[in-house]
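Researcher: Let's do a round of design. I'm pasting the structure tokens now; please hold your answer until I've finished.
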């Protein structure tokens, strides 16, 4: 039997701790890796790192694009979703380097874009004119 996602996540966090990552960063990464683990346990019934496949990883990426905030159910911020993808990509590289997964799935995360939202308040034409008139 191979290592579970939880066991490999602990190893990953220990390595980061040995590299003097801050406690706050480690807590944040731990939360992201818990999200990753829970997703696979719930949606794919995968607990072992060696059972991860490209289609499963792609399904997690799609899941991240639709992440909702717990407090109000709105879509999570763009920076939050990007950080989640970045951390999981680094974790997958770590798994491959340690031989826990057969291939490195982190390239799936490169150039990954989350949909950006428009600003909530856009200036009116009159407000723009006032700004331009104020410029000497």
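Researcher: That's everything. Go ahead.
Model: Designed sequence:
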């Amino acid at each position: 039997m191979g290592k579970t996602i939880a066991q490999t996540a602990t190893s990953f966090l220990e390595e980061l701790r040995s590299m003097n990552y801050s406690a706050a960063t480690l807590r944040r990464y731990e939360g992201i890796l818990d999200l990753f683990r829970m997703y696979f346990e719930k949606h794919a019934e995968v607990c072992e790192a060696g059972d991860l496949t490209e289609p499963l990883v792609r399904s997690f990426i799609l899941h991240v694009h639709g992440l909702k905030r717990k407090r109000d159910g709105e879509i999570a911020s763009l920076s939050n979703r990007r950080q989640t993808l970045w951390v999981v990509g680094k974790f997958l590289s770590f798994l491959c380097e340690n031989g826990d997964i057969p291939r490195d799935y982190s390239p799936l995360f490169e150039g990954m874009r989350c949909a950006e939202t428009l600003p909530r308040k856009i200036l009116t034409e009159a407000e723009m004119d006032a700004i331009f008139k104020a410029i000497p």
